[in-house]
Design brief:
The complex is a heterodimer.
Chain A (H helix, E strand, L loop, with lengths): L3 H14 L4 E8 L4 E8 L6 H6 L16 H11 L3 E7 L3 E9 L11 H11 L5 E8 L2 E6 H8 L7 H19 L5
Parallel strand pairs in A: 1-5
Antiparallel strand pairs in A: 1-2, 2-4, 3-4, 5-6
Helix pairs in contact in A: 1-3, 1-4, 4-6
Chain B lengths: L3 H20 L5 E6 L2 H6 L1 H15 L4 E6 L11 E4 L6 E3 L7 H10 L9 H6 L1
Parallel strand pairs in B: 1-2
Antiparallel strand pairs in B: 1-3, 3-4
The chains are: A alpha+beta, B alpha+beta.
Chain lengths: 184, 125
């Protein structure tokens, strides 16, 4: 993956497949350059045994083949920058994945196009779950959620091209002043 | 956040397009993009948004775009299936955003698949 935002697009699919009804995504950039990405869902969760094994590329819930690279690739890139990935999960409650990146490291990926990732995520699962995005840094904070815009759409799908475009453009405007320094 | 009033305008514009779609039921063309780890790493996200953009630009009411997982041919990603009702499914491989306007214009609008981008052309090369 060439962007942290692409890892987000990838691992959010796990939350969707876990049957989550809410997926809360957060990006917090601290003054020391550490970027913390969190993905919290209320999906089916994983047993402690499965959490132990899920870091291996040879573990997947997929039945078509025996490899799953989403989490291993995320771990590789977080650790390469001097960061880490924590997985906290409870069966029946949900899963929270926390990935820390040290953006001061020359080996750290750029954040990338987070607005495009969010638009793509919402487009892929327009009805369920509800997604939220919280971004913060010393420069400020912003919040977006599908629950917040759904009433204004009054039944029109979030997957409509015009809506997807609106999400992408409005997030772009919102995120740039907050996380613009680490986007590319 | 851009204003919710804008969304309201989008809703109204979209509703009229949806009505067109319902009247033409059964005639919907489907675009399906591989969005598993392999697809994303190979560049499926900009391809997906390029399709949305092109469909929006041309105001195509009878086209839906959706995402799918990995079909096991990761080396050919990004892959895009175009399914026109009454015609055989066409699979495009190694799709890049700049190929999208041609696929939309020639295949989706005019019904002539872009042979050189298809899986058949890639596998026989």
């Amino acid at each position: 993956m060439k962007e942290i935002a692409l890892h987000l697009l990838d691992i959010v699919q796990n939350s969707v497949k876990a049957g989550a009804s809410h997926v809360d995504i957060g990006f917090a950039l601290a003054s020391d350059g550490l970027l913390t990405m969190t993905v919290r869902d209320d999906g089916c969760g994983m047993s402690p045994e499965f959490v132990e094994r899920v870091r291996s590329p040879f573990v997947t819930t997929r039945t078509t083949r025996k490899v799953g690279l989403g989490i291993p690739l995320l771990m590789q890139n977080a650790m390469q920058s001097g960061g880490r990935v924590d997985i906290d999960s409870q069966v029946g409650v949900g899963t929270t994945i926390t990935a820390v990146f040290d953006t001061r490291s020359i080996d750290c990926l750029p954040l990338g196009d987070l607005a495009s990732t969010m638009a793509t995520i919402v487009m892929g699962s327009p009805d369920k779950p509800e997604f939220s995005l919280h971004c913060e840094s010393e420069a400020g904070a912003s919040d977006f959620s599908t629950e917040q815009i759904r009433p204004a759409l009054d039944g029109v799908s979030l997957a409509e091209p015009a809506v997807v475009q609106w999400i992408q453009e409005s997030l772009q405007e919102e995120i740039e002043p907050i996380l613009g320094g680490i986007m590319s | 956040m851009k204003s919710l009033a804008e969304l309201e305008a989008i809703r109204k514009a979209t509703l009229s397009r949806i009505n067109v779609r319902t009247e033409e039921k059964g005639e919907t063309t489907r675009v399906v993009i591989g969005m598993a780890t392999c697809g994303i790493a190979a560049g499926a996200r900009p391809v997906m948004l390029a399709f949305m953009d092109e469909i929006q630009k041309r105001q195509l009411a009878h086209v839906t775009v959706s995402q799918t997982g990995c079909v096991g041919m990761c080396r050919l990603e990004p892959m895009v299936d175009v399914i026109v009702p009454g015609q055989e499914k066409i699979t495009y491989v190694h799709v890049k955003p700049d190929m999208v306007p041609r696929i939309v214009a020639e295949h989706i609008v005019n019904g002539r698949p872009v042979q050189e981008y298809t899986i058949g052309a890639a596998e026989n090369a």
